[in-house]
């Protein structure tokens, strides 16, 4: 039927192929992917200069509600994110010489400065907090993210490396928020993360020589 909405088409296809309720789960996953793809496209093409334009009112409320829980211990959560990041992405360690050092015996073993690890994690969480606090007007935030992106160039970090941090953030948010970290909350936070990455990437690609 030509007038059928995309959601209706997906729903009918899902329910027809699976009568056990998995069709609706599949619909949610497809719609989540479409939502993230649309947001990613708009950000890549400079169509979203305001964070609020990437989120629905319901997503904004989810972000605010879950942030009230997360902000209780930013240093611990931030440190946990980067501990997870270094454990699951071993190749990333070399880009953080102030945090990860070769052992004194000069062996291929890594010694992590846990204070620096937690401090860097805290800085990242404070950046995420700035995004939450500037949901209504993100112009000031965009300037900060642009500058932070430029500073990452000095550490030889490439734009395509930024998104590699998301799985670690996602796992740590899920452990911290527990039942409050619903699929909708996860999607909202991923949109925040995509927005941050897009504006940092803009700074990285426009680094003055």
UniProtKB/TrEMBL annotation:
CDD domains: Mb-like
A GO molecular-function descriptor: oxygen binding
Residue stretches making up the Globin domain: 54-205
Gene3D superfamilies reported for this sequence: Globins
InterPro entries: Globin, Globin-like_OT, Globin-like_sf, Globin/Proto, Mb-like_M
Top-level division of the source organism's lineage: Eukaryota
Keywords assigned: Heme, Iron, Metal-binding, Oxygen transport, Transport
UniProt keyword Heme present: yes
Pfam families according to UniProt: Globin (PF00042)
Protein family according to the UniProt entry: Belongs to the globin family.
Stated name of the protein: Globin domain-containing protein
Native species: Acanthosepion pharaonis
